[in-house]
Specification:
The protein is an alpha+beta fold. The chain is built from ten helices and 15 strands. The chain has a four-stranded mixed β-sheet with strand order 10-11-15-14. The protein has a three-stranded mixed β-sheet with strand order 1-9-8. The protein has a two-stranded antiparallel sheet with strand order 2-7. The chain binds zinc ion (2 copies). One zinc ion binds next to loops.
Length: 396
């Protein structure tokens, strides 16, 4: 593996040297080691080459930027082209760094890109791309002073209520655990201790990443290469927020149905870096009632009637969500027949309307436990000898 070159060292300039400083340093060294002035001196010739190479990279804004970012410069494009200044093994076949850097340094592009590189083998281009995406993707995160405003995430809770609460509405207090702005640092994440040494890079501003046998030196993503971080708030470890038990009072409107999803704005997790909080979503589960069934805003109920009631007609009392209601069933009511009680259903949770109650009749024959009942029923059978299945015979 080729030795990593430090072009700044070669030119004897600091990493923040201006283009003018670099040009001056190069000229001075180039004059000193120029082959014409040092005939036959192999060491001077090598030195001259190194200095020229360093000037070639650092004197070019784009190349210098890349060198600063990844610790070396390669302009090798396709496989088989001349190896870059790093020597053999540094020619990344099919991996176009300048293209890569353009994509990742465009302000606002910021995302992690994992698009496949069709020219690169998975072992080469894909791997590097992933490594770089990781680093570039992490830029600006981790240090309390570098938080971009980030919206807090939403929370989702289930609220179980009984049937009557769903009909009449209710007040519910929900205990939730949410990430809330830290009360010590008011959400900034910053401690009172000024700046501290970045723990990620131990203050060097650089981190080393291995990719197979390759070493990369990158700007530390946590401190952006500064080596320093604002000291973290001790209460929230610099997060700016912390988990807290909170309660949320909600009004459940009359008529709410099972599976309703309610949104309570701003009651989700707190945002970061001044970002707005997420929302709280409440999923409502309504317990079943022993005999009232809901179908939208309608209530469905099955009501048993006696044979005389069904046959002769009757005014019967049926349960509704308002209490008892009178239902008139006509003479000759059949098993399974349905009747509608208007506006005895559920109040609509949004509109000023009410559903209906649908009453389905189930005819209950008497228990013929005594001789007198059996006698009457036999008499009834003699009076009505017609076959109740007569209609079926014509169809089989
Ligand atoms: Zn804090
Ligand atoms: Zn660092």
């Amino acid at each position: 593996m080729a030795q990593r070159k430090d072009y700044y060292e070669t030119l004897g300039v600091s990493r923040d040297a201006s283009p003018d400083d670099i040009r001056k340093a190069y000229r001075k060294l180039a004059r000193k080691y120029h082959p014409d002035l040092n005939p036959g001196d192999k060491a001077a010739e090598d030195k001259f080459k190194s200095v020229s190479e360093a000037n070639d990279i650092l004197g070019d804004e784009k190349k210098r930027k890349m060198f600063d970012q990844v610790g070396f410069y390669s302009d090798s494009g396709a496989p088989g082209s001349a190896p870059g200044p790093g020597g053999p093994g540094m020619g990344f076949g099919g991996f176009d760094f300048s293209d890569f850097l353009n994509q990742h340094q465009t302000p606002g592009s910021g995302g992690r890109r994992r698009a496949p590189n069709p020219e690169a083998s998975p072992a080469a281009g894909g791997g590097f791309r992933d490594i770089f995406s990781q680093f570039f993707g992490q830029r600006g995160q981790g240090g309390p002073q570098t938080h971009e405003p980030e919206k807090g995430s939403d929370l989702e809770y289930t609220l179980n209520i009984d049937f009557w609460q769903s009909i009449k509405g209710t007040q519910a207090r929900m205990n939730i655990s949410r990430q809330d702005a830290c009360t010590t640092c008011y959400g900034s994440g910053a401690g009172s201790g000024g700046t501290i040494t970045c723990p990620e890079c131990s203050g060097t501003g650089n981190v080393t990443q291995m990719a197979g046998a390759m070493r990369f030196t990158l700007n530390c993503p946590r401190c952006n290469g500064t080596g320093k971080l604002q000291s973290a708030c001790p209460a929230c470890n610099g997060e700016g927020r912390m988990a807290r038990m909170d309660y949320v009072d909600t009004r459940i409107p009359p008529g709410v149905s099972n599976g309703t999803r309610m949104r309570i704005a701003g009651k989700g997790n707190a945002g970061l870096g001044g970002g707005s909080p997420g929302d709280l979503y409440i999923n409502i589960r309504v317990a079943e009632h022993p005999f009232f069934d809901r179908d939208g805003d309608n209530i469905e109920i099955t009501v048993p009637v006696s044979v005389p009631e069904a046959a002769l007609g009757a005014k019967i009392e049926v349960p509704t969500i308002d209490g008892r209601a009178l239902l008139k069933i006509p003479m000759g009511t059949q098993n399974g027949q349905k009747f509608r009680l208007r506006e005895k259903g559920v109040p609509n949770a949004r509109k000023e309307t009410r559903g209906d109650q649908i009453v389905q009749i189930t005819v209950q024959p008497p228990k013929a436990n005594d001789e007198r009942t059996r006698e009457l029923l036999r008499e009834l059978a003699e009076l009505h000898p017609e076959d109740p299945r007569a209609e079926m015979w014509g169809k089989v």
